[in-house]
């Protein structure tokens, strides 16, 4: 998920969050070495990862959402962008996979 703060939404002139895909190929090993050569100008963002045991419908209660969670883990998302200093408009951010580039998943 990106652009989740109201301040960032106002800065970029958008009304909703964006999201990108994280794939198995983007996973970096916990405790391993991340090669800077694989990225343009990466940044690290601390995250909380949720392993879901079942999908959620579009509208659920907090209790239904928690019931769908199998596990929670610490994570680091590696964001990166082909655009210098992450300067882009909302249309371009989608083509850049919302700056989603890699992740490290804790135990």
Automatic annotation (TrEMBL):
GO terms for molecular function: 2-oxopent-4-enoate hydratase activity. This is Uncharacterized protein. It comes from Donghicola tyrosinivorans. GO terms for cellular component: cytoplasm.
